[in-house]
Design brief:
CATH architecture of one domain in chain A: Orthogonal Bundle
Strand content of chain A: 5-15%
Strand content of chain B: under 5%
Order of helices and strands of chain B: HEHHHHHHHEHHHHHH
Number of helices of chain B: 14
Helix content of chain B: 55-70%
Distance between the termini of chain A: 61 Å
Radius of gyration of chain B: 23 Å
Order of helices and strands of chain A: HHHEHEEEHHHEEHH
Oligomer: heterodimer
Number of strands of chain A: 6
Radius of gyration of chain A: 23 Å
Shape of chain B: globular
CATH topology of the largest domain in chain B: Cytochrome Bc1 Complex, Chain C
Number of strands of chain B: 2
Strand order of the largest sheet of chain A: 1-4
Largest sheet of chain A: 2 strands, antiparallel
């Protein structure tokens, strides 16, 4: 499944780099283990490894999960709505997508927080007006910002996926510790189990199982943490091939010039 | 004001009288004689120039967006990475360039140590090089503070407290460096100005370094032999071609690290915004400062650590006086072994620094520091002890 989607996204790469990468694809492709939805079994991330790439369909579905579930508590403060163009959206899509969300817009005459529909150049803010409000609403623990979460959390994408799917079926709040989850810090997390069967609606008809949602939202968060990763890798491969060629020419030149020197 | 001196460069006649003007300068530069037996280690000077050019170019563009304010610095760097056109590429080049610069610098210095490039008549080349190294280190540190992530903030905090341990002026100097008791907007302004200004001072320093080199002549792998095997060759085309090839090969490694393995040089913790209320469990500098950071921790009292870590850099300045240039123990194998021990000691000190220097790591780190200092304070004087009368060196001044 993952591999099929990967191949589809792969074919959409610019042709030149497609050819370049084609030979390396088998080396770079993650192992053929396919996530079977069992908690604890990690999906083979298409974006891991030095030549990986993001499955943009999954990234887009993941934004749907973020908007429907995660954004109730977590912000993406460093991301503007317009930045989401990088996951394959058009300007009209961004306009519609931002208008569907409320954002804070200063205080009104009585000192209450005003909200208005977001615009593309707005940040994707946390829903809470302040860290104190975030703590008060979440049993004393402020939900972290997710702008770079996959990069800064030890364990990366698989840890996030594990956290989202690793709750025991009867997980309940334990005072002073949180919900038991083997992927939380010292086995506990303050976040209540966020994902539920059908908790998000997918426009492309994919079944919104918990595992699917977790995989998509993790892919989205990984993309948000490194939005230019695919471009950077393509550039790295292209520039490296060019420099190999150039190095060959300079090697010939150097050998020829130095051939005049008697050894 | 009438200039009475006759014009010396009348047209590009190519004769000896045309000694002024950019063209003559380039010609003199191209004809600069170098020993024919220079090996590939002598290309790292050119590699460093190329890398510093890249740092200067990418840094100037980064400075167009960067905002040195404690409340804005982190998000200005995030906006460079996320939405300035090709900002991610500029920042990636600048970050990768910092590590590559320091790596190339260390190779350049180790080459100088191994081939004793600091011996007369080139002490000034070595000295200007050491000054450049110190400036590059300060610039690299100041630059690492600028993104204002967790490691930036706590790195500045550690540095400020290290400076404050110095006797007499320490407290005052610490406040001058940080612009207050703790890092903040004032620190960022200082670091930004320092980073930006020192970059151009370094450019001037390189010009000086190269000018002194041209005056004194290049060192060579054959050491103090009066005439290198194979004679001398002009800089162009022999060494320009080789330097270009070296630059291209380093560029190849550069784009591979930047494009495919950025995690080798990026510190994930620095993508968390600076938080003065939350001290990270592991505060550690970039890899190129780890040996010195380790040495700071090997001594039970702070001042001793700071002095020994600073001394590890400062001792390089003293190398021309430590190695008197005698010919005792000039066997390359001995020097190679000693240099390998020095590098190994630096690596062990770096590892110990990462492991908070406790338990076995503390012991290993202290031994490594001993080996490091022994290279300079015992091995070099032994190497340079005058057992045989030293011949007059003036005859071999490399300017043929």
């Amino acid at each position: 499944m993952i591999r099929l989607m990967g191949m589809r996204a792969f074919s959409s790469l610019p042709r030149w780099s497609g050819r370049v990468l084609a030979g390396l694809w088998l080396l770079a492709a993650p192992g053929s283990a396919v996530a079977d939805g069992r908690p604890g079994a990690f999906p083979a991330w298409s974006f891991s490894g030095p030549l990986g790439h993001f499955d943009l369909a999954s990234v887009q579905r993941g934004y749907g999960v973020y908007a429907a579930v995660c954004s109730a508590c977590h912000g993406l403060e460093q991301v503007h709505y317009s930045d989401l163009a990088g996951m394959g959206l058009k300007a009209e899509d961004i306009q519609a997508l931002s208008a569907a969300r409320q954002t804070m817009d200063g205080l009104d005459a009585e000192g209450h927080v005003q909200r208005r529909p977001a615009r593309p150049d707005d940040r994707i803010l946390s829903p809470y007006v302040s860290p104190a409000a975030a703590r008060a609403a979440n049993r004393g623990v402020a939900p972290p910002d997710l702008s770079r979460v996959v990069m800064v959390r030890p364990g990366g994408a698989s840890r996030i996926y594990g956290l989202l799917t690793g709750y025991a079926p009867d997980a309940h709040w334990q005072e002073g510790r949180g919900f038991r989850n083997p992927y939380g810090i010292s086995g506990f997390t303050a976040m209540p189990p966020p994902l539920h069967e059908g908790g998000a609606q997918y426009a492309d008809g994919t079944a919104a199982t918990v595992a699917q949602q977790a995989r998509d939202v993790t892919t989205f968060l990984a993309w948000v943490s490194a939005p230019h990763q695919d471009e950077r890798r393509r550039l790295g491969v292209g520039a490296a091939l060019y420099l190999c060629f150039l190095a060959g020419l300079f090697m010939i030149l150097t050998r020829r010039i130095w051939s005049y020197v008697s050894k | 004001m009438a200039d009475e001196t006759p014009p010396c460069g009348q047209g590009n006649t190519g004769t000896a009288q045309a000694e002024a003007g950019p063209l003559a300068f380039v010609r003199a530069y191209a004809a600069f004689p170098l020993p024919a037996d220079l090996n590939w280690l002598w290309t790292f000077g050119a590699v460093l120039v190329a890398l510093l050019g890249l740092m200067l170019a990418s840094g100037l563009f980064l400075a167009l967006t960067y905002t040195p304010d404690a409340g804005l610095a982190f998000s200005s760097v995030e906006s460079i990475e996320r939405r300035i056109p090709y900002g991610w590429l500029l920042r990636a080049m600048h970050m990768t360039g910092a590590s590559f610069c320091m790596a190339a610098l260390y190779v350049h210095i180790l080459r100088g140590l191994y081939y004793r490039a600091y011996l007369p008549p080139r002490q000034a080349v070595w000295g200007s090089g050491c000054a450049l190294m110190a400036m590059l280190m300060i610039t690299a540190f100041a630059g690492y503070v600028l993104p204002w992530g967790q490691m930036s903030y706590w790195g500045a905090d550690v540095a400020g407290r290290a400076v404050a341990t110095l006797p007499l002026v320490g407290g005052w100097l610490g406040r001058v460096v940080l612009g207050g008791e703790t890092p903040g907007t004032a620190t960022l302004h200082r670091m930004f100005v320092l980073h930006f200004a020192l970059a151009f001072v370094i450019v001037g320093g390189i010009a000086l370094h190269v000018a002194v080199l041209h005056r004194r002549g290049s060192s060579g792998p054959s050491g103090r032999a009066p005439e290198p095997p194979g004679g001398m060759l002009p800089f162009h085309p022999y060494f320009t071609a080789r330097d270009m090839l070296a630059v291209v090969l380093v560029a190849l490694a550069f784009v591979l690290v930047m494009g495919l393995w950025p995690e080798l040089i990026a510190e994930p913790a620095n993508y968390r915004p600076a938080n003065p209320l939350h001290t990270p469990v592991d505060i550690e500098p970039e890899w190129y400062f780890l040996p010195f950071y380790g040495m700071m921790q090997f001594v039970p009292f702070q001042l001793g650590g700071v002095v020994l870590a600073g001394g590890a850099v400062a001792v390089l300045f003293a190398v021309p006086w430590l190695d008197k240039g005698g010919r005792a123990g000039e066997q390359p194998l001995v020097r190679l072994l000693a240099l390998a021990l020095l590098v190994g000691a630096a690596v062990v000190a770096a590892c110990a620094g990462r492991h908070h220097a406790h338990g076995a790591w503390l012991l290993a780190g202290r031994m490594a520091m001993g080996v490091y200092y022994a290279y300079f304070l015992l091995f070099l004087p032994w190497l340079g002890r005058p057992t045989t009368p030293v011949a007059s060196d003036d005859a071999k001044e490399a300017r043929a």
